[in-house]
Amino acid sequence: MKNLLYIVLYTWSLLCRADGLPDLGDTSQEAMSPQQERQIGVQSMFEIRSDKDYLDDAEINDYLNQIGYQLVANSNEPGQEFEFFAINDNSINAFALPGGFIGVNTGLILMAQSESELASVLGHEIAHVTQHHLARMVAGQKVDSITAIAALAVAILAARSNPQASQAAMVGMQASSIQRQLNFTRIHEQEADRIGLTTLQKAGFDPYAMPIFFERLQKSTRLLDNNAPSYLRTHPITSDRIADVANRVQQIPYRLVADSLNFQLVRAKLRAMQKNSQEAVNFFQSALGEQKFGNQTAKRYGLALALLRTGQVARATQEFAPLQTLTSRNPMIATLAGQIRRAGKNNDGIVEFYRSTTQSFPQHRALVYDYVELLLETKRFEDALKLLNEQIMTHPNDLRLHELLARNYAALGKRQKEHHMLAYTYILRGNLHSAIEQLELAKRSGTDFHELSIIESELKQFKEIAAAHAKKN
Question: Catalytic positions, please?
Answer without folding.
Answer: 125, 193
